[in-house]
Design a protein that fits this description.
By secondary structure, the chain is an alpha+beta fold. The chain contains eight helices and 20 strands.
């Protein structure tokens, strides 16, 4: 299933992680949690399926951690219900739920060895000593920490401590594992490597993971599906491909990755295409019409991802493409790609990114160059709000 995480075309009822009956493992219905007059979580509904690696993604104060704590049992909803595997867990204490949680700090016991840290929960539950040894050895093998079983946390790297915390959470064989910003303490290169380790381990064990993160790249890499959360509500729930390529609104488009947003007025629709008058671009733009065409005169936003825009000094041809002229205002070289800010005659800036596919130290486009920027009409996303 690690190879199935990115399936942009999957629709409801087609997701490969769902069981034969299609019954959700987790059902959240009308859940709210208030702190005084502030609604941290505001009447949310969500289904999470068995075997998913599901991410709840949002900025600081969006409500994602409060929702995770309610799933774990550390907070109780003011209203609504939480069902796990068909059982109402709304009022069930944490220690009686088929759930385990891996904290951002890892919370390892510094005086215990790796082996004892992982065994701790099983011993507290009264599991026979022989079974404890067997299960601890098996999970340490899975996370590739067997050779370090006798070390204490202070003698481990950040990535190794993360794997110990994961082993300790998984050794109890929960139906649901909750992970609070699991990779936040790791440096960028190790974080990227660990993302794939986490995906493969989750696939191998078949445990349902729910990850809370503020990191869009992490959520996009890890997840079967993502819930984008804002001010206590879900803005959109979908696969990474759906959320990136078909955002529900401006907030999602702007929150996930980089995007250019241009306000426009609908001038009409013809043959499956919308015509939009765009003052920011200085011209009328075309876009593919998805669904019922909006009324003429309606205000819309045209969203363009920087990597969907091409930049060149020569006119690219206008076959099913929008082509605008501009001047390179800023240029950033990142090795694998270059990022340009192109100023249109109206003063509007467009961000454009392009892969550096040819090995050269010379730039083909420089500051202050006059350039053409172009994109396929199907790449423009039209948003209502």
């Amino acid at each position: 299933m690690a190879g199935q995480h990115h399936s942009p075309g999957e629709g409801p009822g087609q997701a490969p992680w769902r069981d034969a009956e299609g019954e959700p493992l987790v059902r959240i219905r009308g859940v709210s949690r208030r702190f005084g007059s502030v609604a941290a979580v505001d009447g949310v509904d969500l289904d999470i399926y068995r075997g998913e690696l599901f991410s709840i993604l949002g900025g600081s104060g969006s409500g994602k951690t409060t929702l995770l704590r309610m799933l774990a049992g550390f907070e109780r909803p003011n209203s609504g219900s939480i069902l796990i595997d068909g059982q109402d867990m709304t009022a069930v204490p944490p220690y009686e739920r088929p759930v385990n949680m891996m904290f951002q700090s890892y919370a390892l016991f510094p005086h215990m060895t790796v082996e004892k840290n992982v065994a701790y929960g099983l011993k507290k539950d009264g599991v026979p000593a022989a079974e404890v040894r067997e299960r601890v050895a098996a999970i340490l093998e899975k996370v590739r920490m067997s050779r370090l079983a006798g070390r204490k946390p202070a003698a481990l790297s950040g990535g190794e401590r993360q794997r110990v915390a994961l082993a300790r959470a998984l050794v109890k064989q929960p139906k649901l594992l909750l992970l609070d910003e699991p990779l936040a303490a790791l440096d960028k290169k190790l974080r990227q490597h660990t993302q794939f380790e986490l995906m493969n381990l989750q696939d191998e064990l078949g445990v349902t993971f729910i990850v809370v993160t503020h990191d869009q790249e992490e959520a996009m890499t890890l997840s079967t599906r993502i819930a984008v959360m804002n001010q206590g509500r879900f803005e959109q729930v979908g696969t990474p491909g759906e959320i990136y390529e078909y955002p529900a609104n401006r907030f999602v488009a702007d929150f996930i990755g980089n995007v250019n947003l241009l306000e426009a007025t609908v001038a009409g629709a013809d043959g499956g295409r919308l015509k939009l008058d765009c003052e920011a671009a200085g011209v009328s733009l075309s876009a593919v019409c998805e669904g019922t065409p909006p009324e003429t005169g309606a205000r819309r936003w045209v969203a363009l991802r920087p990597e969907k825009i091409f930049i060149s000094k020569e006119h690219p041809g206008a076959n099913d493409r929008e082509v605008l002229r501009g001047v390179v205002h800023d240029l950033g070289y990142f090795g694998n790609l270059s990022v340009y800010r192109v100023e249109l005659p109206t003063g509007q800036m467009l961000q454009v990114s392009g892969q550096n596919r040819v090995r050269t130290a010379r730039k083909t486009v420089e500051w202050d160059d006059e350039v053409y920027v172009s994109w396929d009409i199907a790449s423009a996303i039209v948003l209502e709000h």
